[in-house]
Amino acid sequence: MTIKLLASNKVFGGVHQRYSHQSESTQCEMTFAVYMPPQAAEDTPVPLLYWLSGLTCSDENFMQKAGAFKVAAELGMAIVAPDTSPRGEGVADDPKGAYDLGLGAGFYVNASQAPWAKHYQMYSYICEELPALLEQHFPISQQRAIAGHSMGGHGALSIAFKNPQRYSSVSAFSPICQPTNCPWGQKAFAAYLGNDQLRWQEHDSSLLIKQLKPEQQLPLLIDQGSDDNFLAEQLKPETLVDAAKQLDYPINFRVQQGYDHSYFFIASFIEDHLRFHFKYF
Amino acid sequence: MTIKLLASNKVFGGVHQRYSHQSESTQCEMTFAVYMPPQAAEDTPVPLLYWLSGLTCSDENFMQKAGAFKVAAELGMAIVAPDTSPRGEGVADDPKGAYDLGLGAGFYVNASQAPWAKHYQMYSYICEELPALLEQHFPISQQRAIAGHSMGGHGALSIAFKNPQRYSSVSAFSPICQPTNCPWGQKAFAAYLGNDQLRWQEHDSSLLIKQLKPEQQLPLLIDQGSDDNFLAEQLKPETLVDAAKQLDYPINFRVQQGYDHSYFFIASFIEDHLRFHFKYF
Fold first, then answer.
1. With a cut of 0.90, is the ipTM above it?
2. Which residue of A has its CA nearest to B228?
């Protein structure tokens, strides 16, 4: 598997780079961005945080707006930000160009329905293909954590709950916690997975959390802004928090007063998330 | 003078806001962004850093990409990021839509030539109208510093050198140091100021610095990346550094190895600039 360097910028003594590669999972050219901390320059394997972005984002939003590099450089932690969907000629999109389906809205599932199934295989891409590719090309260790925002928070939680052996910890900002029961999730899951709601449940964190055995309960941190416009209708963290309580799963769910859904919120608390993940590597 | 709130986001305990207002200087609606640190919530006047952005930027680039808020919040420093040109219907632009003239490229001068003179009065806007507006609407003190990037570095240096009594310190990332002798500056100055090169010299920092009396020499910090694609042809910091040496003006000029012209570079060193300015408030 080869990768093509698109851009490279020194930042906080490390390097931010963008790459593209032909993906077997999504059958198109995929782009990702990676931050390698200064420690990686000595070919010492460094731990890696997967960051899954939200609706409309590409590999660029987190890298440009989250302000994560100072602490990542201090800790010696790499970060990868994949794209949020397949892209390019022939890749299906919402017929009306809606922001919440198709391009920029892969929802981290493997689609089974036409016209989506051919390229929208983001679950396999994130869980299997991308890790193998990164471990081939970069000095990273087997220590992995996963985090994300909004749709990417759903991605991080659901992928971690389905693969607890692969990650040492998981965190999210403003995650979609119950996609089977909110407009964004229902629209995407109906399109990508069809009408069988049993298939939807395989990607709903508020249900997946109940399948974890106590020894599979990863350390989990969630930050949610109290002034987030999407909180009540789309995000529904209370379902996940209630499920965790019933399971005695000690999640750290924090409501941050006055914060909204934007990267200004993420930037304000990303340091806590990096230090949280670093503790469990 | 009234201002209209466009957006508001809590960040690092303070607030980032975007406003628009009808400008007397530029005869159009101008947009600016401001960060007010938590300390301002108590109506304690806080010092203010003016940040002037580079070519193609709006009020948004610095606020989204520089990662300045954590330290600004710690220090209790407000930051304002004005737009880089007038905009809107009837505002002249480069006939070919070039990025280095017209919209997004006001060069912080008052244009005297048609078709630019009517709206391109960015010098007056930054030096006079905006400060008066901000001091009317926000709890800010009379303590002002000024900084900028590239074209905005030229703006910060030239404005500070022309008005040393107004600012307590000045800094720049990758500034255009000799606009009378580089393609960007020559193109813009010829269009905005006409062919009389004496008018150009009134905005050339490598010349303006020589007019300062010793007691007018503001504390000055410049960061320049060694891998900046624009360094040799457009930025020419050596002319400014040489002039400072001849004057025994103790400027702090730092070459940062391996860094480029991007906001990744700015983010890596903005903390130093904020602490530098804070020292002189």
1. yes
2. A9
